[in-house]
Amino acid sequence: MAAIVEARELTKVFRVAKDRRGLLGALRGLFSNEGRDVKAVDRITFEIAPGEFVGYLGPNGAGKSTTIKMLTGILHPTSGEVRVEGKSPQRSRKEVVRRLGVVFGQRTQLWWDLPVRDSFELLAAMYQVKPEAYQEILKRFNEMLEIGAFLDVPVRKLSLGQRMRADLVAAWLHRPPVVFLDEPTIGLDAVAKGRIRAFLKEINRTEGTTIMLTTHDMDDIEQLCSRVIVINHGRLIYDGDLEGMRRTVGAPSTLRVEYTRTLETAPRGPWTVLAHEGAAVTVAFDRSQHTAAAVIAELSRYGELRDIYMAEPDIENVIERMYRQVM
Amino acid sequence: MSAYVLLARKAFRRNLQYRAAHMANNLGSMIFGLIYIAIWQAAARGGDAGPYDAQTLAWWVAFNQVMLWVAVFLPHGLGIPEAVRTGAVSLEMLRPLDYHLLVISRELGTVWYNLWFRTLPLALVFALAIGVYVPQNPATYPLLVCGIVLAVYIGLCQQYLVGISAFWTVESRWAWQLTNTLQIVLSGFMVPIDLLPAPFNHVARVLPFAPLHHDPASIYLELAGAEALLWPFFWAVALTLICRYLTAKARRKLEVQGG
Amino acid sequence: MNALRLYGRLAAASLRARMQYKMDFLMSTFLYGMLTVSDFLMLAAIMLRFREVGGWNIYEVGLLYGMSWIAMGLYRTFAPELHNFDRYIVYGEFDGLLVRPWPTLLTLLGRNFEPHRLGAAVQGGIILWISVSHLTQAGVLDGLDVAYIVAASIVGALIPFGLSLFTATLAFWVVRTGELQPFTMYAPVTASQYPLTVYPRWLRLLLSSILPVAFINYIPAQYLLGKGGSVWSLVAAPAFGVAFVTVAYAFWRLGERHYHSTGS
What we know:
- By secondary structure, chain A is α/β, with parallel strands linked by helices.
- Chain A has helices spanning 22-31, 64-71, 93-98, 116-126, 131-145, 160-172, 190-207, 218-224, 242-249, 292-299, 315-326, and strands at residues 5-17, 35-48, 53-57, 79-84, 100-104, 178-182, 210-215, 227-232, 235-241, 252-259, 272-277, 280-286, 305-311.
- In chain A, the strands form three sheets. In chain A, strands 5-6-7-3-8-9 form a six-stranded mixed β-sheet, sandwiched between helices. A four-stranded antiparallel β-sheet of chain A has the order 11-12-10-13, with helices on one face.
- With 259 residues, chain B is mainly alpha-helical.
- Chain B has one domain.
- In chain B, helix 1 packs across helix 6 (99-130), helix 3 crosses helix 10 (210-220) and helix 6 packs across helix 7.
- With 264 residues, chain C is mainly α.
- Chain C has one domain.
- Chain C has helices at 3-19, 22-36, 38-49, 58-78, 80-83, 86-90, 94-98, 104-109, 118-137, 143-155, 158-174, 181-191, 201-206, 218-224, 231-262; strands at 52-53, 56-57.
- The chains are: A alpha/beta (327), B mainly alpha (259), C mainly alpha (264).
- Chains in contact: A-C, B-C.
- Chains A and C meet through helix 3, strand 5 and helix 4 of A and helix 1, helix 7 and helix 15 of C.
């Protein structure tokens, strides 16, 4: 099947100006060209087939946003090629972008002072979405995301979760075949994240939209993506499925439980005890070998559990291990 | 005492970071001043305005354009509306310092900065364009300093009142824009208030805006003597009382409603 | 997508949203008109005391003032996002403009509409009407002249728009262009309220070239009032406006290209 999104030896080099002090320094800076080159993205190559749900993972500053910006025509690559549906976003920006949906986690593209409904209607008119199609998509998305409650509220008055849901609807109004999401769950609480993940999963399944999601939240990846591309320091270090990644890394996860009663001795099982203080026990276990549920079940054999706290797998840790292993 | 000085110093340093941008802005101020001077010189050629001849008016405009930066172009409500919005104001009021004095001290840092990085470069440019008036009477100098100090203080109090109104109103932008407009139109900034058509000339004399520009400019150009300090002094006292009264009310509102 | 129809939709939506708070909207419009009339108060103070300025009397200056404020008011109403463009660079919002399938400037302008700023145009219109009435009564202007003046005031909005476009484009390199606006926008537009004869030669040159506010009102008014110029002045004003915006837009595209390679 022909790839719908392609990147070949994609590279982006930024020139960072030498830090200049004072007025004289600033003037001198205008005339000289000193600085150093920073490779934000270094020869990245991948192909995405239609309908895939790809996670683009990496720590802060790894080059995720820069890649997305080149895929959407915002930035021009220093070298290498980008193709979306066979066209170059650099050379045919308007054509390519017409068939894209883009959601930036940090910034909304809706009209700040207008009710959400007005933003949708304006976008529908701009993208020439037929009224029937618009009504139908609004109804469906309302069922999934429950936006009906705040359709008439100005965007500036929405909570972060509500705004993100509205942004998602806005991105899908014109039924684009490809949607890029840049950190869509950042800053949201667990409930909001869950709702958005459910929506994305459903949409990918029913609409067949190709989705590329950048994140540094492992749970986003685990729940949504069949395929993961990992990037660090601008370089692609893994491209494959989630299972493969877990197997490659074998990173330990941490679980902290509180029993209703003090435990005399530390519980034993397929884990390493990191801390044991009275009724609280912290253990580390290998996710690729045991599920969290199984570990919790095992732990509960030692007493009645009162509280469970699961530490997110440290993404930086995972990436660094991966990086070291790949090297 | 030292806490207030520290606040002022911090404000000064904060402004220092943006001096490049301020220089760009100064360019606009210079052009404005030169435009107003040109208008007056053309106007004065066509008529008579008593002691206000073309050259005097040019100096008048230059002096006031420069004064804008220490008496009028102050941050919106001296930062109080923002503090009210974020809730930081409750922390500030809790401190064992006089809130009115605290806010004024902080802004004095900005005023001191403006003096060196705004008024000074502007004054130099205007001096090159139209020359400098040097007061002949030695008594003028101390009077002028008093006049400027009172103008700065009154300007600060007016912005303070705009700011403190944020405790009771939702939208303080209008109060700010209105105050700014009155500070420019009725203060004798461009037009000496006695040149304003009746009844504006009388109204402007009794309002607290004339001490911002008209009175210090009159002293500087030796068009008036110590009597030009009477109204400024009155307003400095009156505004202080109003500020302190409203501050106490605001504090009580905070205590009752919990911010 | 018909750009004009779409802008109409946006304007309607904006108005609808503001009309929700009808009192507030009317107050804002009125207050903004009142604030901007302060320039006129200074003008009146000067003119009432001195018969004329630079050879122009109060009604002639009022003509300049009215045309200038109509142009400025229209610009502020239709292009608030351009006026505050540096925000888009500072907060990375320009990316959002690039992912729409239309020219970025169009998307930018379509993001906001500020009807209350028409208050400025209205007060300018009132002053213009008073001035023009007196001038037509005095036989200086005829009906055709008045029609031209009204049209020129509206078309004159192209000049502050062009100035704004140039200033905004600088944000691609300099980022915080708000500090430049007193120089590139506010000062020249204020200067255009008075006849150019008042200013020293270098300023007159500046205001007819790099900061060409003279083309909003002074150049055509000069001819209509019989103070100089030629019939070509009437053509030059709108023609210059169009040319100015065209050049400014080319500069904007340059800035966009720069953004594509450096981000921000």
